[in-house]
Amino acid sequence: MRIRVLTVAALAVGIGLGGPAGSAAGDDAAPGGVRAATGSVSILQAKWPYPRIEVTADFGDWTFAKSDPCPATTLAGCSVRVYSSSMCDRGARTVTNPSAGLITGSVGKQRLRLDPPTGATGGYQLAGAIDLLQGGETVRFEAAGDATGVPAFSGQVVAPALVALTTPTSPQLVRGSAFPVAWSPSSPNGVVRVGLTSFSGPTQTTVMCEFDGRRGSGAVPAEVVNRLSVGRLVFAVDVISSAVVVAGAFTVTIEVQNSLVSGTGSLR
Description:
Helix content is 3%, strand content 53%. The chain has one domain. The N terminus is likely disordered.
């Protein structure tokens, strides 16, 4: 199946929602504050509600008045972030969305081209079409670079295997208990990422746990589940292969993501 998709670039993701897009960015000194120059070139594939594949390229050059007031913390090997706009959106911040020039790539024997933005608010556009991935393909991207934006870079990853989620059948969590997940077949590369977000008034708590794809199973520890609020949850499981490359001041993530499930659940 060949699917033509348009890509979206230069998405401004607020610091309260996880900071600069696509990164675990370092802080570089910048006039007037803390700098985080980040980017990502990604392929996302999902089977529901219909088979689809998306190719995206996003870059942001951020300057914050001060360091993130609500950083993620690590608990039992998982990432935990508590966010509210009144607590986390303090201090001025600015962002520009630079170009990395023409981006070319390959997925196995397929060739890709991402044309750079043509206007201040435009995004990268995929020229042509791309087949759905079968797993195990070598995915490579090369950016020509832009003299006033992101320098040239290149990198590659191997796409994770196509797997199915076997546990849970529905995301119903219980405080004080671990939350098990399992998938089949195991993936020889990449990680399985479980994301859970709960809501309590203006505050949301997001936890992310990653498991080696070769294991076939994992569990969100009980102490991590206990950080979530009782009630409705947003739930997602993805299989991800990624690599990080450095282009000048920019940290760029190259990623292939297979979405296994996304929806809502509950914690009681």
